Amino acid sequence: MNADVLKGGFANAPVDAAHAFRAAMNVMARPGTVETLEGVEPPAPMSIAAGTLILTLCDPDTPLHLAGDWDCQEVRDWVAFHIGAPIVGATHAMFAVGNWNALAPLNRFAIGTPEYPDRSATLIVEREALVAAGATLRGPGIKETAEMALPETEAFQMNALLFPLGLDFFFTSGDQVSALPRTTKVEAA
Amino acid sequence: MYVAVKGGERAIDNAHAWLAEERRGDLNVAELSVAQIREQLSLAVNRVMAEGSLYDPDLAALAIKQARGDMIEAIFLIRAYRTTLPRFGASAPVETADMACDRRISATFKDAPGGQVLGPTFDYTHRLLDFALVAEGEASAVERGEARAEPTPHITEFLNKEGLIQTEVDSEDVPGDLTREPLELPANRPLRLQALTRGDEGFVLSMAYSTQRGYARNHAFVGELRIGKVPVEMEIPELGFAIEVGEIELTECETVNQFQGSKTEPPQFTRGYGLVFGQSERKAISMALVDRALRWEELGEDNLGAPAQDEEFVLYHSDNIQATGFLEHIKLPHYVDFQSELELIRKLRREAMENTMPVQEAAE
Amino acid sequence: MSDYNFAYLDEQTKRMIRRAILKGLAIPGYQVPFASREMPMPYGWGTGGVQVSAATLTPEDTLKVIDQGADDTTNAVSIRKFFEKTASVDTTEETAQASVIQTRHRIPEEDLREDQILVYQVPIPEPLRFLEPSEIETRKMHSLEEYGLMHVKLYEDIAKHGAIATSYAYPVKVEGRYVMDPSPIPKFDNPKMEMAAIQLFGAGREQRIYALPPYCQVVSLDFEDFPFEASKADHPCDMCGATDSYLDEVIMDDAGNRMFVCSDTDYCASRRKAGHVGAQAAAASAALKETAA
């Protein structure tokens, strides 16, 4: 094991995680808003925001899927040391992290059951940048409309049709985070 | 003139001070030590450990002292403490066949290997107040036999050899944990047994009693009841083998129940199972009866609509900490809700009066 | 400080609660099961709200705790003290100053802002529970969006009483999908639930968390010919003269004379501070002047 994996965790876990969760909750409750999410330094290619998010939400109880380039030894070692989440394939994941292409196809992920729609995966989509312009968003958490640049629109429209089942998304880039729950209705720009 | 009630904080502090004074009682009477409670009220300690789900006689004794003898309050103290403890791992399953039995009886066989050991039981005492105890006299030392060194086989195993009793299949599955996962229904037997062993003794007793009186009657024989200490071992990954981390006292009860057989199973006996911390035999027997009643579906029996057969009913109402909290919360202010009810009932009465008035006038 | 972790709960428990909160926000009105912990206060006394608050608070937060709208009720005092001790947060009685508000049975009168969070203590989270005691059945009903039983109950009320005989914990439908229990707030508060703040609901004993994101559609169930009505005592506050606030009725003397005062103590106090005077307060100050003269 590389000594670097021992680094990059929270300096003060209870307080850092509390701040991180508030940012995560705020963006999930208000699709389209962007917040800063920091506190940890994960190995490349994982962003600070994605690393902070999984350190805040994941533990040995949450199977995690690493997609594409994110499934590398450095990330695996870092996850094993700091989080202890079992690394699994897409179908068994509660959380998944990777870029949009690596996460596709989305229908591999759990969307919940009619009696337990919460048993669905949360996808952390790593992006080049988070831009509050582009597709129009409507739905809970949005007063009238919001805007967000999305990797595509159709996948999110299909996902919203599954409601109350479906996937929930975080978008991360550097130390920035935004989110799109299954309730958001997306319209192309 | 109305002044809004202020001073909740002072009232709470004063109430706590008064409570502490009442707990101590008359200062001219010597204070109870935790060790005295642990040694001399050991069955109370056992109950607190069982329903508190924490095996620690000293802490249970402390809880009883702090709770002024209120058992549910003491159990609550232990539960609230327990949730703050870190988990280092899970022990290996204890082997009750290896138990050093202080007591071991069977109602199904007159004698069996290992013998009948009456042990320290109230069973054949005459319930006459012993005024000699008022004098705080020391009990004289009693003669002790040697505890059996070799394992004591389970009585039901003798029936199993003949195929007369249903085999309980070992499972490799990791059992769920009621204290770490939300209860999901239908539950399975491990979760039911967890709920029963930490459930309120009075509740489990009443449920068991109801099955004896005909609500899902399934006549139970006490195949075996044993009380004694068993070693607890834990697998240490760094060592690669299990080491003994301590010893706990347990009460285990296996009942032998009638079973008519089904399309797939020949007639055979079935079991109910009870396992409780400490010497808690009333609880262990009750648990075995309720466990058996809850197995109706798995054994292909009819659902008679009896309370003890209703898994959801039993599991949701067996926990006395949940029950007492919710019951007692109605002491909290509800005046906002009551106000809305007041307004509603006034409105409904007004409307009812308006509707009936003309009739009354006509009658006059 | 104490030997306990920040905000009492251990980090693994907080993560579990935080995951439930996020799913709750993503599925508004749906009750997410969570492994509620035993807290050092009894079940039924706000353990769900306390766990949600503990998983939400940061050291920079300012916490307000109300019970029946009041900051000084004994259980509100007890919960506020718990967080002062375990999370070292600042506390306040002023609604506008609070970033997190934990409540039992009321929504503050003052409109909440986007930067505020309202945490409800919930005794029975299942709106269908009083109609169907079995959890297996009610879960099925939610999954099938089968809410006929609820409408039948409300309609029977109308047939019997000429009105819907539910005055608090009045059921709502969220985003046209889940029927939700708003906790035992008076139905007067129901329309406030479409608000700018995040609303989180915690039911400890029943092991459920649910949530409403800001500006979420929350509709009180009703019928076209019997529309929902957010009622309160038809009276102004005797202390501050407010006509728009929910009122408590206080019995004044042995003759049963009564007065009406705001249940939201901070709202009433800030109005009086701003110079608003209700009937009883005016009479009292007049009497005082007379005695002085």
Main-sheet strand order of chain C equals 1-9-8-5-4-2-3
Largest sheet of chain C: 7 strands, mixed
Average pLDDT of chain C: 94
Protein chains sharing the most extensive interface: B-C, 51 and 66 residues
- In percent terms, what proportion of residues of chain C is strand? 15-25%
SSE string of chain C, helices as H and strands as E: HEHEHEEEHHEEEEEEEHH
Going across the biggest sheet of chain A, name each strand in turn. Answer: 1-8-7-4-3-2
The rounded Rg of chain A comes to 16 Å
Mean pLDDT value of chain A: 95
Helix content of chain C: 25-40%
Helix content of chain A: 25-40%
Number of helices of chain C: 7
Strand tally of chain C is 12
Tell me the span between the first and last alpha carbons of chain A: 47 Å
Using DSSP, what is the number of strands of chain A? 9
Uncertain regions spanning at least 5 consecutive residues of chain A = none
Rg of chain C is 20 Å
Task: Describe what you observe in this structure.
The complex is a heterotrimer of chains A (189), B (364) and C (293). Chain A is an alpha/beta fold and 189 residues long. Chain A has helices spanning 13-29, 48-57, 73-82, 100-103, 154-161; strands at residues 35-36, 64-66, 95-99, 122-126, 135-138, 146-148, 168-173, 176-180, 185-187. In chain A, the strands form two sheets. Chain A has a six-stranded mixed β-sheet. Chain A has a three-stranded antiparallel β-sheet with strand order 6-5-9. Chain B has twelve helices and four strands; from the N terminus they run αααααβαααβββαααα. Chain B has a four-stranded antiparallel β-sheet. Chain B has two domains: 9-82, no CATH class; 96-122 and 141-167 and 179-324, no CATH class. Chain B is globular. Helices cover 40% and strands 13% of the residues of chain B. The mean pLDDT of chain B is 90. In chain B, a hairpin with a 4-residue loop joins strand 2 (220-236) and strand 3. Chain C is of the alpha/beta class and 293 residues long. In chain C, 29% of the residues lie in helices and 17% in strands. Chain C has helices at 11-26, 47-56, 74-87, 135-143, 148-161, 265-273, 279-292; strands spanning 32-33, 62-67, 90-91, 100-104, 117-121, 172-174, 178-180, 198-203, 208-212, 218-220, 247-251, 258-262. In chain C, the strands form three sheets. A seven-stranded mixed β-sheet of chain C has the order 1-9-8-5-4-2-3. A three-stranded antiparallel β-sheet of chain C has the order 7-6-10, with no helix packed on it. The chains are: A alpha/beta (189), B alpha+beta (364), C alpha/beta (293). Chains B and C meet through helix 1, helix 5, helix 11 and helix 12 of B and helix 3 and strand 11 of C.
